[in-house]
Amino acid sequence: MSMPRVLLVLLFQISYFVAIATIHNPGNLPQVAFISPGDYTIGGILSVHFSSPDKMCSDRIREFAVYQKLESIAFAVDEINQRNDLLPNRTLGFVILDDCSKTTSSLTRALHFVQTHSPSAGVETSHGKINDFDVIGLIGAESSANTVQTADLLSLFKVPQISYISTSPLLSNKRIFPYFSRVVPSDKLQVEVLVDLITHFNWTYVSTVYEEGSYGVEFNKAFKNLAEKRGVCMGVSLIVRGYLTDKTADKVVQDLLTVPRARAVVLVVRNRDMATLFRSVRQLGRVGYFRWLGSDTWGGNVQDFLGIEDVGQGSLTIGFQSRFVNRFDNYLKYLTASNGSYNPWFNEFFESRYNCKFYPGSNDTLCDRNKTFAADYSPLWTSSLVIDAVYTYAYALHDVIRGCKGESNEKKCVEPEKMLKAIRNLTFEGEHGFVSFDEFGDGSATYTVRTLRRVNGGYSLDEIALWDTNIRSFTFFNPDLITWPTASMSSNRFLVSTCSDPCNPGYQAVTTQPHCCWYCEQCYINEITVLKNDKPTCLICPKEGVFTWPDSTRTKCLPIEINVLSIPGLVGTVICILLLLVVVGTLIIIAIFMRNIESPLLEVSCKELSFLMLMGIIAANILTFSVVVPPTGSSCILVATAFQLSFTFTYGPFLVKINRMYRTHKAQMLNMEAKFTGRMYNVVFTLMISFTQVGKYSFRSKSKDESGDKLN
């Protein structure tokens, strides 16, 4: 045994004697054990009472669902003892201890199943003082935090343990918890169900509230990792330390409201904390604002929502698909104080449920000893899991005993190692479904998603989805049963739990922090909005072959329709008439020019340049007729080049003429002869300007084509 384990054993020894001293004081504790003797005994640790800060257990009994779990163990043991095919000629018994909803108490209770007590120390029960709990295995504890503590101790002493509800992934570690098994899967699968549920509704921004301890911390860690892989961002993650009070619950709600767009909230807390939190939600006027999603720690029964149904209505809780055990429910609902008194906690549960006393004071109501639970009884889905845990021990013990034939001491033959091996090899059809165990000791199950809804004046938990652990996906989904608040439906806000609103067409999403948040940026006029990696992105309309342009919705590119002007059309006719008038006017000017070509005025202004200007004007007007005829590739090139030349012949001669006049005037002032002012030079200069303009145009056109190709 390693040194840390030796120190752990010493610590447990000290804890044991402290526990014995506490338990042996009858005035300090309520009843802590429910015992039924048998040839072979199954141990059990359940949370019957609430914890107390100043003593091991408080006097406050927990909800009625705990009583249903207690009776499930007793019912299954009695049923097995009445069978002839299972453990014939042998009886099962049980010892159930109350850990008072505290991890340290779970450790002290577990010590009673690994120690041989002295005659002077033990647990006081209605059966007397029981000093030795020699068990074939243990069922429990209820919470994962308590189970982690007890499983480490029980594995150290090779005591098999089966849980019906503890789902912490830590418990799958067989190096630390080799003797632990459970009839349900690990929370790793429950997290997958939760994330699948969130993504089904396109909720990408969620918050979490989780309890302190191994269960809550590990669940939140696994959920956060998987959610981020699936594109879901975390709003706030709030840890609940200890039990919630009204003040701390108000603080949790206010912290959730710091990220108001994260309206989907995952709760990984106990029933008691859920109820306190929901009361604060109502007090702060936020009923219907959040969509609550729960793990299997709360919301498994309609009774969990007693008095807070308005807040819990529409919440989505995940649990294991489990059939109600009708024969058990028919037995339990008709128990009374007269025939149910063998359970030492019956009176406490009855008094708490009906607000009465069997031994009343002056202001108390007397309990009816003949009253049953039938009038307001609700079946518990976890009852079948508890019964399957008991039957797992029964079947495993049956197999071990069958292999012990010929042994002189049968009980000595029933060793922990043999029991563990028999448990892991078991397969049978249980009350909740098929029972089997994988290499990690985890069971298989189908998850169910339930929602609280109002039906016929009352409330019920209805199944809306099933998630198969084998194929890891939903096999059934009916969201129509979910209750959505009317105000939220009209504004369509309750159905949205995202960090940012979707971008309209013509805009793209620019991601910020966290990665599911963004702002919308407008696209350019020639761009459309497309989805790229589920994000709106701007895309330039292509122009290969056919030029395209965004449509009115800015979601697709359409070919640009070619509009050709024609002479028969109104616009084409008007253009032609105007051009004819301009051409006629220009021809009249040319005629006047030719008639007075020898005049001194034209000689001074260089008649060659004036003639080129007139030719450029008339050519530009004649070329304008090309816009009213259907274009071709060749005609477009010709027209573009001709237009450059015609306009250049208009301003080019004018520029040369101004330059000639300036140089001539300057030469006269200096009594010099102006150079390069002859007619030939004037024409050459004009042609140089014209062809320079055409070359510049061709170069720019080529550059535009190349840049356009790069953009596309």
TrEMBL record:
Chief location of this protein within or outside the cell: membrane
Membrane topology summary: Multi-pass membrane protein
Keywords, sorted A to Z: Cell membrane, G-protein coupled receptor, Glycoprotein, Membrane, Receptor, Signal, Transducer, Transmembrane, Transmembrane helix
A cellular-component GO term for this protein: plasma membrane
Organism: Patella caerulea
Superkingdom of the source species: Eukaryota
Residues covered by the G-protein coupled receptors family 3 profile domain: 571-663
Signal peptide residue numbers: 1-19
Pfam families xrefs: 7tm_3 (PF00003), ANF_receptor (PF01094)
Gene3D superfamilies per UniProt: 3.40.50.2300, GPCR, family 3, nine cysteines domain
Protein name as annotated: G-protein coupled receptors family 3 profile domain-containing protein
Compartments (UniProt record): Cell membrane
An example molecular function term from Gene Ontology annotations: G protein-coupled receptor activity
